[in-house]
Amino acid sequence: MNGAILALLALFADSGPAEWNAGLARKVITPTESVWMSGYAARTRPSENTLHDLWAKAVALRDGQGECVVFVTTDLIGFPQELTDEVAARVREKHQLERRQLVLNASHTHGGPLIWPNLHVMLDPDPDAQRRLINYRHQLVEDLVDVVGAALADLSPATLSIGHGSAGFAANRRRPTPQGYRLGVMPQGPVDHDVPVLKIAAPDGKLRAVLFGYACHNTTLSSDCYQIHGDYAGFAQIEIEKALPETTAMFIALCGADQNPHPRGTVELAVQHGAELAREVQRVLADSLVPVRSRIHSAYDEVPLDFAAKDRSVYEEELNVENVYRKRRAEIVLAAMDAGRPIRHVPLPIQAVALGDSLVLVALGGEVVVDYSLRLKKEYPQTDLIVAGYTNSVPCYIPSLRVLREGGYEPDDSMIYYGQPGPFAESVEETVVNACHRLLAQVGVNLPSSETK
Ligand SMILES: [Zn+2]
Questions:
Q1: From CA 374, how far away is CA 402, in angstroms rounded?
Q2: Alpha-carbon distance 256 to 373, whole Å?
Q3: What's the CA-to-centroid distance between 131 and ligand 1, angstroms?
Q4: 351 contact partners, CB below 8 Å, separation of at least 6
Q5: Cis peptide before 263, with omega less than 30 degrees from 0?
Q6: Residues 47, 359: Cα–Cα separation, whole Å
Q7: Regions of the chain short of the pLDDT cut 50
Q8: Bridge partner list, 213
Q9: Distances (CA, A) of 115 to 104, 105, 136, 388
């Protein structure tokens, strides 16, 4: 054997990226009948038609030791915990995947259906509209279970590599005013413009899939749009798949709860932001990416987050206010008290998935403000962290302590629409961050020592 062949054999014998297996699947999840769209209280009627299809897409990864994880991305607003539990139970039974091995992310488009019963306080659909939403939800569970199975059935050798880009259209939306924090544009507020790009290719280098993320509300279009759509994230995926045929483009919503696209309000702007993101993803793909070694570690937990204690009388008074949303929220909270199970806390799913030696996805439930992503990335400077929100379930917003103390829509008013009793206790940020530390340690990533050398 000559030297060149020996060198080639050594290359393949190395525990290199060729030990990955990846499988892909996708399914249209566009509602087949007119349904209420979720995210804006100002909508007055159900959807009229479709701007483009909504998708559930899955990528299954298997490392050299046979360990698996499946990432599912969807053009949806967010999942109720009951739905995720049902999908996870079915996937466990059918495909023997543990809870920690399934990641379900929603793009948080406000152009998709209401996922019953999340955010129904906003719209209060009549019984017939409710029936359509419940039908949609039943079908969605089937589709999600199917897409996971199809991705697992598609496993074939692959390589993984990671890179990062940046896009500037996310603007902090918490504007201080003499009347308190209001939704608007706050150029000086914190942002995270990172665009992580995970490339999945065949051993011959042919691109198979790209997972990319961004920390920004998927809300370029506003409440006057009654066409089903995936907003900028939907357009970005369509753009990438048009430019790179036979590639599956998958969008992961990161910690963009206090970020809005800027400017916003028209289909043209949603197309424009999607195109900006798509161009950046393609630029990163063409750049030198870092190979990811074949290794998966995953961990999952549900962490109870306490609400600030409030007296029953607060909600009894709320029953008499003009605001119909406050009234509906008060009814939910009081009914829970009457049933002997007052809502004192909410379980937040938190998941960590390590790929290779230094890449980790920390995926949080809820609408997570950008402070969490910025804090965790700062705390783990040696780790390539992707911090996602909108994963597994979205019970409400997850403010940082700063945002909680400042008040405004994210920590206070949004709780009404989610049917939650009110703002979190001040322990919220430390509870979430401590759980992230614990889960990161479980996947082999420890906090750098705080001791000074
Ligand atoms: Zn939101």
A1: 13
A2: 9
A3: 24
A4: 100, 103, 298, 299, 300, 301, 361, 362, 363, 364, 391, 392, 439
A5: yes
A6: 40
A7: 1, 6-17, 451-453
A8: 252
A9: 14, 14, 8, 20
Three-state SS for 20?
strand
Q: Please give the Cα distance from 103 to 392 (Å, whole number).
A: 6
Please list the alpha-helical segments (H only) found in 258-353.
Answer: 267-286, 312-318, 324-338
The domain segmentation of the chain, as residue ranges, is: 15-295+347-398, 310-343
Distance 106 CA to ligand 1 centre (A): 11
Q: What is the pLDDT of residue 453?
A: 41
Å from CA of 118 to ligand 1 middle: 12
User: If DSSP codes are grouped into helix, strand and coil, which group holds residue 271?
Assistant: helix
Q: How far apart are the first and last CA of the chain?
A: 51
**How crowded is residue 445: how many other Cβ atoms within 10 Å of its Cβ?**
21
Q: What angle do CA 374, 357, 7 make, to 5 degrees?
A: 140
Say how many residues make up the chain: 453
Q: What does each C-alpha distance from 247 to 56, 163, 206, 239, 371 come to in angstroms?
A: 15, 17, 9, 11, 33
Which element (helix H / strand E) includes 417? helix 414-417
| Alpha carbon of 386 to ligand 1 centroid (Å) | 19
The alpha carbon of 22 and the centre of ligand 1 are apart by a number of angstroms equal to 32
Residue 450 is predicted with a pLDDT of 55
- Helical H runs in 76-126? 81-95
**CA of residue 197 to ligand 1 center, whole Å:** 23
CB 121 within 8 A of CB 328: yes
CA distance 401 to 369: 10
Q: And the tokens for 324?
A: 């119909």
Q: How far is the CA of 368 from the centre of ligand 1 (A)?
A: 9
Buried b (16+ CB within 10 A) or exposed e, 376-397: bbebbeebbbbbbbbbbbbbbb
Q: What is the pTM of this model?
A: 0.95
Residue type, 404: L
Q: How far is the CA of 288 from the centre of ligand 1 (A)?
A: 34
Helix/strand/coil for 284: helix
pLDDT > 90: percent of the chain: 94
